[in-house]
Amino acid sequence: MNDALTSPRLDTQAAVDAHLDALVRLDPRLAPVRARAGIVRPRITEAGFAGIARVICGQQLSVASANAIWSRFAQLPGAHDPRAYLTLSEAEVRATGFSGGKYRTVRVIAEAVVAGALDFSHLETLPAEAAVDYLTAHKGIGPWTAQVYLMFCAGHPDVFPAGDLALLKAVHWGLELEVRPTIKQMEAIAAGWAPHRSAAALLFWRYFAAIRDKEGIAL
Hints:
By secondary structure, this protein is an all-alpha fold. The chain has 2 domains: 3-43 and 159-212, Endonuclease Iii, domain 2 (Orthogonal Bundle), CATH 1.10.1670; 48-141, Orthogonal Bundle (Endonuclease III, domain 1), CATH 1.10.340.30. Helix content is 60%, strand content 0%. It has 14 helices and no strands. The chain has helices spanning 3-6, 13-26, 30-37, 48-57, 63-74, 82-85, 90-94, 100-115, 120-123, 128-136, 143-152, 165-174, 183-191, 197-212. Helix 2 (13-26) packs across helix 14 (197-212), helix 3 crosses helix 14 (197-212) and helix 10 packs across helix 11. It starts with a helix and ends in a 7-residue tail after the last helix.
């Protein structure tokens, strides 16, 4: 078997290409999608507390807005460290552009890390479903946040954020479905792409960008 397929992380071009090759063999409908998408590159960012804080920062925002807010937030002293984050006031964090809800969610995460209830090293050893459950046990972290963290921070090779609107639109168009799939329907479709679901998500985000001339996610 290709070594890139057995790697626990989807964090190199070789790994992405190998998973996409296997994905298209598994579902030939994706061949024209891949051709239209062009090169699909790995998208890995910082893991741990800072990584999940950045995912939360980008929720429901355009790429430009999320990047601008993150740039301001990252300049706060200790913003990347959970203990230091707990010393920041809500006013300081919200002045960077964080909403009150996002401030509180990141605080819950910081408290969990400091208390030992959230261990990002342990998280990376878990299967995808268990890892999502581990993260969503913390207030404010929903499935999308957990799945996006696993993809882009942990490099997990078999995650598909079925609730992402750009993915729902891209799959609707790319598979020429009569209607846009619901989240449940999307989960069922993506189940057929295991164990290459992260590559499928990267492919459809790239396809969405190619069709709409913009990125589908703020990372």
